[in-house]
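Risk mitigation, structural track. In case the binding assays with zinc ion fail to produce interpretable data, a predicted complex structure has been prepared as a fallback.
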Amino acid sequence: MSVRPVPYPSLLGGVQKLRPDVFQVRLPIVSAYFLGTPGSDWVLVDAGTPLDAGMIKRAATQVHGSRSPAAIVLTHGHVDHVGSVPRLRGLWPVPVYARAEELPFLTGQAKYQIGRRTSSAPDLRPHIHALPTDGSVPFLTGWRWIPTPGHTPGHTSLWREADRTLIVGDAFSTANARNPVTLLTGEPAQVSHAFLYLSRSDGRESVRRLAELESQLAAVGHGKALGGAELPGAIREHVRRFDDPLPTQPPRLPLLALAAGMAALVWWWRRE
Ligand SMILES: [Zn+2]
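Fallback model:
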């Protein structure tokens, strides 16, 4: 089946050109994206963990020279996607956008409820704004934002119909949600569940909506980007099997410890 994973530039990080104006910034456990042609306006999509600002800045210099992004767009407010926003905004004082439904979490008014635990996002007032209600993405032509709640209430994906490019965020992943080590390796590079759904039924409906888009390239928060003619079929198949029991769960604690250790090693290796 020709679903084609795009290899990571390296295990330790780096930039991968997915389209002439779409760049995947590989960070230790997550990816951020640069949208926009080098030499003109560009937008940073997501901003890694609090430890990733240096890597994002280096990647931006590599791709866009001294040109700052025109804006930062967030797929959602989890700490591995917004962690470096405060530091990057110190460098690039640009507006930050997220879907209106995600703003309570990014303005200190609500916390994500995960089982009995809560987690909060940085308070980004007064720099955070709602994405335009007409579906456009500020500073980018040809892109639309698509509501994909489930992973979080205000999660959003980005879509460009012209070349059928989808920035998925965490609506689904291509790593293995049962095995945190795959946050680092990006395997198995297949359409898979997100690592978490705050609402599983919304999550299923969102992936179904993405399946209808017939995308030719799907770039995700966690895992390798996928392309190829069979990609729409693979997303539809994932929707069809959404509620199937997942394969046996490997022991989590040792894997989490290993993933944390490897992430710390990568961070140490790539520090400023
Ligand atoms: Zn997330």
